[in-house]
What we know:
- The protein is of the alpha+beta class.
- It has nine helices and eleven strands.
- The protein folds into two domains: about 1-110, Phosphorylase Kinase, domain 1, CATH 3.30.200; about 115-240, Transferase(Phosphotransferase), domain 1 (Orthogonal Bundle).
- β5 (about 90-100) and β6 (about 100-110) form a beta hairpin.
- The longest helix has 29 residues, at about 215-245.
Amino acid sequence: MYLEINPAFENIRGFIENIENHFESEKQVLHSGRNIIKKISHNNNHFVVKSFGVPNLFNLFFYRFFRETKAKRSYQNAIALINAKIPTAIPVAFIEKYTMGFLGRSYFVALRVDYDYDFHDINFERKLGTPNLFRQFADFSFQMHQAGFLHLDYTPGNILIKEDQANYKFTVIDINRMKIGHVSWQQGAESLGKIYFKEEYMEIVASRYAELAEVSQKEVWSRIQKSRNSFEQKKKLKKFLRFWKS
């Protein structure tokens, strides 16, 4: 086992070292699939623990020699985001389990984020969006891109929203896939295509992003639409492949 812990949480090292057992016994499941996410409480703190599935044979070799694990990338990306003052869940630790030198399950532990809703709630009309919300979201996205972070899974469930009257705080999660470096306005606009809202809302985002990037709204809108179409095609292909595998 390999473990790296945030120095601020050294006082709970024993709990973290035993996280696999805590995870197996915990019943509060937030997401279940290839990767499993659970909420675990300890000493009046609430943690979110993501357990990444065991890689396939090809990726076992890949992770062994060429690439950092998803758990490690989640931890490192979280530290980089926080240092750049981009809100994300506070990283606590990552754990990698190995068998004969090859990766098994790995875990990313973070403090649970206090939030009110996410963009799924708006898309499914469980929460009403406002023009101000979408303008501020465009501001947040542009700020993150200018800071050199391109979230490669920038989807509705990965942006958490905390509302304070007319002000909104956005927090990004699920950050193991992220490009760090120069982000062009084209890349930034294309990333918005995965969070497609109602057209009236998307126009607000595109207009504000274009204003900040000092380019035309038409250019930004074109990039968003192109990215959206590509994203939808990939989703259909994955659904088709899953159907034939079942």
